[in-house]
Write a structure and sequence with these properties.
Oligomer: single chain
Helix content: 10-25%
Radius of gyration: 24 Å
Number of helices: 2
Strand content: 35-45%
Structural class: alpha+beta
Mean pLDDT: 89
Largest sheet: 5 strands, antiparallel
Shape: elongated
Length: 151
């Protein structure tokens, strides 16, 4: 018998094998779930709507695009660990090819604890980014020249 339960953003699965009596199976799965919920917690590090970084793009329809985690970033830890300091590393792709579509991955968010990688989450863009055409690139460059931004 397998059972799943969710409490306080923590989902657990309990599996009991080899027990013929359903009442005993139910008691054992309940005990397993209670044990897990009493000892472990889920900590939200970032929501999937949090801006993690901004990428500057050349020759594109927009000059900058925000980068978000593909999903909520959560870490499972023991409840007895009161204060845990996680380190976060952002690793963006070096060669981003245009066009980009909403949801395309452009890097990773790496969550570490004491130099041990706990989780890697893809970083995505939340908007479409087109490659800039020649004419719009020409007028942008010409405008930058007039402003003195290009030497």
């Amino acid at each position: 018998m397998s059972v799943t339960a969710k409490r306080d953003n923590l989902r657990l699965v309990a599996i009991v094998l080899g027990e013929a009596v359903s009442k005993v199976r139910n008691e054992e799965t309940t005990a397993l779930l209670d044990y897990g919920f009493n000892l472990y917690k889920s900590t939200l590090i970032h929501k999937k709507t949090d801006v993690i970084d901004t990428i500057e793009l050349n020759k594109s329809s927009v000059s900058k695009v925000n980068v978000y985690p593909k999903e909520d970033v959560t870490i499972i830890s023991k409840k007895s660990e009161v204060s845990v300091e996680y380190t976060k590393e952002v690793s963006l792709d070096k060669d981003i090819k245009l066009p980009l579509n909403k949801g395309d991955a452009v890097g990773k968010l790496i969550i570490k604890y004491k130099d041990k990688t706990l989780k890697e989450i893809e970083l995505i863009v939340d908007t479409d980014v087109e490659k800039q055409g020649f004419i719009s690139y020409f007028f942008k460059t010409f405008g930058d020249l007039l402003k003195g931004d290009v030497i």
